Amino acid sequence: MTPQLDYPAIHAIFSRLREAEAEPQGELDHTNAFTLLVAVALSAQATDKGVNRATRDLFPIADTPEKMLALGEEGLIEHIKTIGLFRNKAKNVIKLCQRLIDVYGGEVPSSRAALVSLPGVGRKTANVVLNMWFRLPAQAVDTHIFRLGNRSGICPGKDEAAVERAIEDNIPAEFQQHAHHWMILHGRYICVARKPKCGICPIRDWCLYEEKT
DNA sequence: ATCCCGAGGG
DNA sequence: CCCTCTGGAT
């Protein structure tokens, strides 16, 4: 497995990423905690662009659990059927809304345990909401961060849990809050899955990935 | 380990 | 055609 990069390399990498984008934002459209939670749940194995296209017409008429329930599973499917895994997602979102109302007073809970108890919400989705909305030090490991972390040596690990630990243990405190989006954006646009764009990569000097050409 | 599952890119 | 996309439940 790729070795863990040392402190100077990690510091240099995130300094460079911060230089390019001081305040990295998520790219999932949302208007409140509820629509953020739903958008993240819908984004599983789907592009944010595809999720935004579907939620553009959905969220204006269903930005609360009550309104989403009124839409119903079939009504929801009409909005999200262009997104992969839409049947499971529709079923989960409806059940999630009912549980938010029954157990959490219609509000999105701010603890990981409560979030993970919601249908269709796993550790990754919970960590995104904790990080983006509640500004807590939670590190979500998605496909991009897993790939980038292991290729580069920023946060290598055999599974998501190991990568999450590598982030917490090796990324300096000053970068922890924004590390998630810096790595997402870099993985999405530069260190892409198929053919990483090493030629224009701003952190190439410290990366351990050997381009096989 | 397997299933879910459409859109977009190469 | 094949692979990938901010995964989760069984």
Automatic annotation (TrEMBL):
Keywords: 4Fe-4S, DNA damage, DNA repair, DNA-binding, Endonuclease, Glycosidase, Hydrolase, Iron, Iron-sulfur, Lyase, Metal-binding, Nuclease. PROSITE patterns: ENDONUCLEASE_III_1. Residues 42-189 form the HhH-GPD domain. Its cofactor is [4Fe-4S] cluster. It catalyses: 2'-deoxyribonucleotide-(2'-deoxyribose 5'-phosphate)-2'-deoxyribonucleotide-DNA = a 3'-end 2'-deoxyribonucleotide-(2,3-dehydro-2,3-deoxyribose 5'-phosphate)-DNA + a 5'-end 5'-phospho-2'-deoxyribonucleoside-DNA + H(+). Binds 1 [4Fe-4S] cluster. The keyword Signal does not apply. Its EC number is 4.2.99.18. [4Fe-4S] cluster binds at residues 191, 198, 201, 207. GO terms for molecular function: endonuclease activity. It comes from the Bacteria. DNA repair enzyme that has both DNA N-glycosylase activity and AP-lyase activity. The DNA N-glycosylase activity releases various damaged pyrimidines from DNA by cleaving the N-glycosidic bond, leaving an AP (apurinic/apyrimidinic) site. The AP-lyase activity cleaves the phosphodiester bond 3' to the AP site by a beta-elimination, leaving a 3'-terminal unsaturated sugar and a product with a terminal 5'-phosphate. Belongs to the Nth/MutY family. NCBIfam families: nth. PANTHER family: A/G-SPECIFIC ADENINE GLYCOSYLASE/ENDONUCLEASE III, ENDONUCLEASE III. This is Endonuclease III. It comes from Pseudogemmobacter faecipullorum. The gene is nth.
